[in-house]
Amino acid sequence: MRGAGGSEGGLGRFFIGLVMLIGGGYLFFNSIRVTHSFGMGRALFNIGGFGITSGYVLIPFMFGIAIIFYNSKNIIGWILCIASLVMLTIGVITSINFRFQHMSAFNLIMILILFLGGLGLFLSSLRDLNKSANQHEDIRDKYNL
Q: For a surface tag, which of 14, 60, 78, 135 has the fewest beta carbons within 10 Å of its beta carbon?
């Protein structure tokens, strides 16, 4: 019977690595707190020393909508709308802050061991152990080790 990924790597290593990887990933992402600092009076971009707030981004959007409703084939209206929406989206994404919650060094080390150790076990289960063992024997024979 073939193992994980059709190799002889071992199903036990595959499932233990997968459980460790999922557990470590869950604990890692669970320890991150997401906050934002998006506001109508706060600058999203600075152009020439002038701060552009999220309210300023909506002004070209409003002109673009008016132009589109007046003449839907006018390319300037479409450019204004699309550029405003892109700038607003980028402003929202860049205003997101990620912070680790307070944890001890032991907790962080355990999370890293679970995540990275699980990743190592998972990936090693996908390779053929018999093939790698034969390669090591060939190297030992070549160098008389």
A: 135
Cα–Cα distance, 132 to 125 (Å, whole number): 12
Q: Is residue 64 part of a domain?
A: yes
d(CA 2, CA 72): 61
- In total, how many domains does the chain have? 2
Give backbone dihedrals phi and psi of 42, rounded to 5 degrees, phi first. -100, 140
Q: What is the pTM (predicted TM-score) of this model?
A: 0.56
The reported pLDDT for the residue numbered 62 is 94
Q: For the segment 23-69, what is each residue's pLDDT rounded down to a tens digit?
A: 999 999 999 988 877 655 566 666 677 776 767 778 899 999 999 99
**How far apart are the C-alpha atoms of 125 and 12, rounded to whole Å?**
8
Report in angstroms the alpha-carbon separations of 104 from 31, 34, 100, 109, 111.
Answer: 12, 20, 11, 9, 11
